[in-house]
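S1.2 Input.
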Amino acid sequence: MGIIMRSYLLIMALLLIAKSLCLAQIANIPVFPEKGSTEVQVWVGGGHSVAGGRGDTGAFNAGLRYGWILTGPHLPGFLRGRFEYAVDVVPVFLVFQPASTAYGAGFDPLGLKWNFERHGRFSPYLELTGGALFTNQNVPAYTNTVNFMDQAALGIHILGAKHNVSLELRYMHISNAGLGNLNPGINTVQVRLGVGRFFARHERRK
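S1.3 Output.
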């Protein structure tokens, strides 16, 4: 539990630092990215297991995201927003199990993200993500070292002139999809913090 608590403290410290970056840039907030823009982000997250799978398990992960805004605004009212496709590379993934800690890396090639219209500096979003996780030990114990990750997240972008901060609540299901003899799975709820930037089309041409 001590490692998990330190992970939460790290996330909170990064949030305070990232928030100060955005507050310093509040005077010149850009327009929300249009169709054709891209997103680059580094992120860190962590959380603990919940009901529905193997318990007493924590997770900590960090990665890099690249996303493409594929559409202009669609849908009416509070649903109005833009669709983004994103991929994540996850070079750091720790799973804190009762007997030992598994170290690994992952890749999420399927990121479906709906960026709602902004309200001032704030732009909420919904996201569905899928990928694979490879670890040096079986996750959970006595199962397999190769797993798949299904994820759903609700978050918010805090927009700044040069950097954006995102804070989200993420549900992650880890399962080997029958690759091992046992497949109890792990369900976790995680908090994720990201710092990045949206790049307009004309910026990428420079």
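S1.4 Remarks. The chain has two helices and eight strands.
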